Amino acid sequence: MGWTTLGIGLLVAAAAGLAAFGRSRWAGATQEQLALLEAARLPALAGLYDAREIDVLPGPVQRYFRAVLKDGQPFITVATFELSGTINMSATGESWKPFTSWQRAVVHHPGFLWNGRVAMLPGLAALSTATVHDSYIAGTGTLHAALLGLFTVADVQGGGEIARGELMRYFAEMAWYPTALLPSQGVRWEAVDDSSANATLVDGPISLTLLFQFDPAGFITSVHADARGSGVGKDMVMLPWDCSVSNYQLRYGMMVPTRGEAAWLRLEGRKSYFVGDLTSLVYEFQT
Question: DSSP secondary-structure letter at 95?
Fold first, then answer.
């Protein structure tokens, strides 16, 4: 019994040490990614939000900005926020795991870094956590996941559809930093009907057009892409994609959603894979 107990104790200590080393190594990698994100930043545009700039926009887009912004609102340059929720680790089944995350989004030059922690075995979270970097930085998309921050289980990086998909995520999440959706900040709007409009964002060689849906109060309810790459490498397939937002609350004088959900629209139906609630939000404004 004594030797068994000692052996178990040594294994637990070794696992704890490995987890601590992984956290330290991952923190270093996160700082490297943040440095790249900061290096890619461009000077902010001068001025404050002038409500007259939305007068020529489609009706539902005008209602949105009137619902979420006030005249004279400073432009957001950086949004830093935390989310917690669940993520489905299975592409075909249901394998929901809890996650927490920290994210930084920069408006000029468009980019973000999502640093997530997924508890693969919630009862043993300290010894079974998958750490994830999801990012769009200087025109490059990256997805890197590692068990305990050490053992890589996914690692893709590059341009093309990888970068396009990551910029798509950034664009769809702009309701969390709403001044970025203004025409003066680089977004072009086109009318569709009384409750939706197309928005276009261009970054270098990538041009994206997404369909934004609005409710009667003017708030964005969903963002739709006809095609986004699901999977990686040879397994990547292009599927319709939805990002839904809800539960708007007043933050820093602006109305922003506090819940987000992402889903693939497969032949067999809508397949949600991410549900997150906003737990912290801090802005940096143009000064």
Answer: -
Q: What SS3 class is residue 186?
A: coil
Q: How far is CA 184 from the centre of its chain?
A: 22
Strand partners, 137: 140
**131: amino acid identity, one letter:** T
Length reported for the chain:
287
Parent domain of 70: 2-285
pLDDT tens string for the chain (287 positions)? 455 554 444 445 555 666 677 788 999 999 999 999 999 999 887 789 999 999 999 999 999 999 999 999 999 999 999 999 999 988 778 999 999 999 999 999 999 999 999 998 766 556 679 999 999 999 999 999 999 888 899 899 999 999 999 999 999 999 999 999 999 999 999 999 999 999 999 999 999 999 999 999 999 999 999 999 987 556 789 999 999 999 999 999 999 999 999 999 998 889 999 999 999 999 999 87
> What amino acid occupies position 268?
E
Strand 76-88 relative to strand 254-266, pairing: unpaired
| Domains of the chain: total | 1
